[in-house]
# Entry
Amino acid sequence: DQQVKQNSPSLSVQEGRISILNCDYTNSMFDYFLWYKKYPAEGPTFLISISSIKDKNEDGRFTVFLNKSAKHLSLHIVPSQPGDSAVYFCAAYSGGGADGLTFGKGTHLIIQP
Amino acid sequence: SQTIHQWPATLVQPVGSPLSLECTVEGTSNPNLYWYRQAAGRGLQLLFYSVGIGQISSEVPQNLSASRPQDRQFILSSKKLLLSDSGFYLCALQRGSSYNEQFFGPGTRLTVL
# Structure
C-alpha cells in the first residue's frame, strides 16, 4: 500500500509559467513533508519542507502548500525555469525520531522553452 | 556543511557475487544514516537506517545487510546478489533525531547481470 502518492508521472510546463506538482498521502501520522529534486544519476537534493502545523511555506520561487484535511500537498514553482526540469519527489515523515522518509514515485517536470 | 561520499559510483556485478557499497560522511558527528534504493520506475525505498555505531534497523526483508563500523561510515552488503538487486542506491544522513531534513549522497548505480 503506497502511503505517499504522486499521481502524475510527468508534467510539461512552459518556461516562465507556474509549475504545480501534487502529492497525496494516506498516513495521518505523517507530520512533516519534504520535496526533493533529482537529476538523472544524482542523489536527490532537498528543496523545501513543511510541518503539519503550517499550511504554507515559501522559499524564493518555491512554495509548498499543505491541506491536512484533504491529506494533500503541492509544490508551486514560479516562474518555471529550464533548470527546473528534473524529477520531483514528495516525501513524508513522522517527526521526532530516526525513521526514514516515505517517498512518492516522483513526477518528471519538463520545462519547455 | 555536511558532505556525503558514496563509493563506487557505478558497479556491474554477476548474479550470485558479493556486494559492498560504502558511504562516508563529513561535517557532522553522530548522524542518523540511511540506505535507500530506487529501482527502475519506482520511488525511493528505505532499506536500512542507523542511529549509531553498530545499530542497524531494517525496513524490508531482503538479502542485503548493513553495518555501521564507525560513526561516519555506513556499509551496504550482500553475500549473493540477485537480479532484483539492480537499482540506484542512495545513502542519506539526518543530523540527529531532532532534525527532520535528510540529505542524500550522489548514489551508486548497481547493475546485476
Summary: Chain A has a mean pLDDT of 93. Chain A is about 0% helix and 55% strand. Chain A touches chain B through 28 residues (CB under 8 Å). The two ends of chain A are 38 Å apart (CA to CA).
